[in-house]
Design a protein that fits this description.
Blueprint (H helix, E strand, L loop, with lengths): L15 H11 L3 E4 L13 H6 L9 E6 L4 E2 L2 E2 L5 E6 L3 H13 L3 H15 L4 H13 L3 H16 L8 H13 L3 H13 L6 H11 L3 H16 L14 H5 L4 H14 L2 H14 L5 H13 L3 H13 L5 H17 L3 H28 L10 E2 L1 H7 L4 H4 L9 H6 L4 H19 L5 E4 L2 E4 L1 H13 L3 H14 L9 H12 L2 H13 L6 H13 L3 H13 L6 H13 L3 H13 L9 H10 L6 H11 L5 H15 L3 H13 L6 H14 L3 H17 L6 H14 L2 H13 L6 H12 L13 H17 L3
Antiparallel strand pairs: 1-2, 2-5, 3-4, 6-7, 7-8
Length: about 775
């Protein structure tokens, strides 16, 4: 019997209706008072003592009950029990009202506490309250509250309460998350909406995509989303004639969404993912506009698809709606691609054609100016990168701020066609395109005429010199000077090239170029002879000094005082005092002033001190910093890519073998084509494993690094095929390289193909390989968050 024992205070959560029914049926007398939570307190104190004492932390309706009889509960019998029961009851409807009031008054801390109370007491509140919480937290633009809102969405979906989540509030939350620099939760909400068949219109999700594309992880996720959404529409899977498909058709990717995703890929270097999007375009019926044509040109150039660029050139030349900026970008891509393939003839011919057209345009403009005088103040000048950057607003840096004013949910909800979001997507796209245009370096425009920049001369000269084509280089530079006459001989491209060769110690190449200029009848300034002469003297090359002096005298070149001083010092060091005295006498007779020509020294000093770099300084930096490019790799990569795209993997393997035998080392692009080719066929996991082993050995033996796109394709193949230990190796490599991994994609993939794997108890008898495979799978599941 427990009648003689004191009972400690206990609290039991009960429903008010259940409690009143229980007590009424038992014949107990009840009294209602105002308190906050529903609690039952058993105490041995008298009722009057309990009521008179303060009730801590209680604000709702309560019930105080005096128990004077005993009652039986299962095997426990109470003959006599004197105590009290305090029931603190809370009405969910009143709690919802308090949450709404707190939301209206922007008391977010109170709303969260009240929501948690409701969650513990009666689960999620009604749909209107949940959605109001989501939109109010989103409108705050405060990251902690945005994370709480996203947590609410995740919890509701986990508890199968997704019917409480409205389509428009979720779109709004996803948009704000993307705008505040949180692309992963923003993309997850979009994916959940599609999974719940609450399809967001493309005018809405393209704005989300635009803000996601301002960060590297977001740009990668944007491309993945386009691929996932586009897959639903491939090859006419959705019949647009059926009315039931209208919401799904409204979600179909359009040209703006495609432009956003592709530009983001270009700006953050995931160009092979961008090419996958291009391959998908005709299968979902997306037509290219002028922006998309130029973006395609950038992608083909980055991936070394020269033939595709040549095909695209016909559309570019025939187009009447392209701007000067777009023409400039296309021909910059084509010129860069020629250089990648080592096609110096094609590249140099492009430069000469541009120079000739620019000269013709200048002559025409000069003639027109004589007939019709033009106000110089209103005349447009050359378009520079700096001026473009100041005129155009945007760029990645300017668009990342989450402090920009955003739509309130009321405005968002009233805009039923999402026109404001569509306008914002176009605005961000324009900023991304400006950022892409800022990367054009080889070509500029002046009054709508394409002209080569110093950068293209630098790259061409470097390529000519590395391939030993000194004569061809001289011929090109001489033709270029005839088309684009410099203001002075000292400022010509050829002079800068010779000076650069001298600075690098390539004296023979410099002398060869000088000879080619002299034979072509091009008069060269004395500064070049002086520079080369002093370099020969410093290198103690007596024969070359004599030959150069003879050439200078034949050309009628008058050397400056510094050259004479170098010659005198050189002859004295050789103990040829007679020749030294002869040179000094020649200098006196020529009345050479002591402050002679010093342009070259000043230029070198200016470059060394970080001053304004001219052509010579850029050439020096290019040659010293950049490694020689193996143009043969691009040719073989194109061959392998073609076979892999056509799923002719045996031919691709033969091409890879031939590539290696010719001494061309495969790079990340080569391996990516092979892996995606095997994945497209399906079941070729052993071959991918062999490639992975080769990649690891190359990575350990050389400085070659594998990028995110390649490792992501390898990881996808291993997870799909159940090669979990290999998948864990790829994950480790990616995490060490701090690469972004789309865990949602791999979680979905694992659940699709391996959901029931290793779910039961561990078998008592297992081989060593089975144990390792199980451990690898459990490690991957833990990393994916599926435990």
């Amino acid at each position: 019997m427990l009648s003689t024992r004191k009972l400690k205070c206990q609290f039991i959560a009960l429903s008010p209706r259940v409690l009143f029914s229980l007590l009424s049926d038992s014949g107990h007398e009840t009294t209602r008072v105002s308190r906050c939570q529903m609690l039952v307190s058993w105490s041995s104190r008298p009722v009057n003592e309990f009521v008179d004492s303060p009730l801590p932390n209680l604000n709702g309706p309560a019930v105080v009950v005096r128990i004077q009889d005993g009652f039986n509960h299962q095997s426990h019998s109470f003959s006599t029990l004197a105590g009290t029961i305090l029931v603190q009851a809370r009405d969910p409807a009143k709690l919802c009202m308090e949450i709404e009031n707190a939301i209206d008054e922007h008391r977010f801390n109170d709303t969260w506490k009240l929501f948690e109370q409701h969650l513990h007491m009666d689960g999620f509140p009604r749909k209107s309250i949940v959605n109001k919480l989501l939109t109010s937290y989103a409108a705050s633009l405060d990251v902690p509250w945005l994370e709480k809102a996203y947590g609410m969405v995740e919890q509701a979906i986990e508890e199968s309460k997704q019917n409480l989540l409205g389509k428009e509030p979720l779109i709004y939350l996803s948009f704000v998350l993307a705008k505040c620099g949180l692309p992963v939760p923003a993309s997850t909400i979009l994916r959940k909406l599609i999974q719940m068949e609450q399809y967001p219109p493309v005018t809405a999700w393209s704005a989300i995509l635009a803000h996601m594309s301002l960060t590297a992880p977001g740009a990668y996720l944007a491309a993945e989303l386009i691929l996932e959404i586009g897959y639903l529409f491939q090859d006419g899977r959705v019949d647009p004639r059926k009315k039931i498909n209208a919401p799904l058709i409204a979600m179909k990717p359009n040209t703006i969404a495609m432009n956003i995703a592709l530009t983001g890929c270009l700006l953050f270097g995931t160009t092979r993912k961008a090419e996958q999007l291009l391959d998908m375009m005709p299968r979902i019926g997306i037509r290219a506009d002028t922006n998309l044509l130029i973006i395609m040109a950038h992608i083909y150039e980055r991936n070394g698809r020269r033939e595709e660029l040549r095909k695209l050139q016909r559309h570019i030349d025939d187009s009447q709606s392209l701007t000067d900026t777009q023409f400039r970008q296309f021909y910059n891509c084509l010129l860069t691609c020629h250089l990648k393939f080592g096609d110096l003839d094609a590249a140099s011919n492009m430069v000469l054609i541009m120079l000739r057209k620019a000269r013709e345009a200048r002559n025409s403009f000069a003639t027109a100016a004589l007939l019709f005088p033009i106000d110089k103040k209103s005349s447009p000048g050359p378009v520079s990168q700096e001026s473009l950057g100041h005129k155009e607003s945007g760029g990645l840096g300017n668009n990342r701020s989450n402090k920009d004013p955003t739509l309130s949910y009321e405005e968002f909800y009233r805009d039923r066609n999402f026109l404001k979001l569509d306008a914002e997507a176009k605005e961000v796209l324009n900023a991304l395109l400006v950022e892409l245009h800022m990367q054009v370096e080889l070509i500029t425009t002046e009054r709508g005429i394409l002209q080569p920049t110093e950068k293209i001369y630098v790259k061409l000269v470097k390529a000519f010199l590395e391939s030993g084509k000194t004569k061809e280089l001289a011929a090109f530079l001489i033709k270029a000077e005839k088309e684009d006459s410099p203001a002075s001989n000292d400022n010509s491209a050829l002079v800068h090239v010779i000076n650069s060769c001298i600075s690098l110690g390539w004296l023979d190449q410099a002398h060869d170029l000088l000879d080619e200029m002299r034979l072509a009848g091009v008069r060269t300034s004395s500064s070049v002879y002086a520079s080369l002469l002093k370099a020969y003297c410093k290198a103690n090359r007596s024969g070359e000094v004599t030959a150069l002096l003879r050439d200078a005298r034949r050309a009628g070149i008058q050397l400056d005082s510094s050259s004479y001083n170098a010659l005198i010092e050189f002859r004295v060091n050789q103990k040829d005092t007679k020749e030294a005295f002869h040179i000094f006498k020649e200098m006196k007779e020529a009345k050479i002033p002591r402050t002679g020509h010093q342009e070259f020294e000043m230029l070198v000093k200016g470059c060394a001190e970080g001053g304004e770099a001219g052509l010579m300084a850029k050439l020096l930096r290019e040659i010293k910093e950049e490694q020689a490019v193996d143009s043969g790799v691009h040719d073989w990569n194109n061959v392998i890519h073609f076979f892999c795209k056509k799923r002719l993997m045996q031919d691709a393997e033969k091409a890879l073998k031939k590539m290696r035998s010719l001494g061309h080392a495969p790079n990340a692009q080569t391996f990516h084509s092979m892996v995606t080719g095997y994945a497209a066929i399906g079941g070729k996991y052993i071959e991918v494993t062999e490639l992975w082993g080769e990649m690891k050995s190359i990575a350990s033996a050389t400085s070659m690094k594998f990028d995110q796109e390649l490792l992501d394709s390898v990881l996808y193949t291993f997870v799909r095929g159940g090669f979990f230990s290999r998948a864990n190796e790829v994950v480790d490599m990616m995490e060490k390289g701090k690469m972004f991994i789309d865990k949602y994609k791999y979680r979905t993939l694992y659940l699709k193909y391996h959901k029931t794997l290793y779910k039961g108890k561990t078998p008592k008898i297992q081989t060593e390989s089975q144990v390792k495979k199980r451990e690898a799978a459990l490690t991957l599941k833990k990393w994916l968050g599926l435990n």
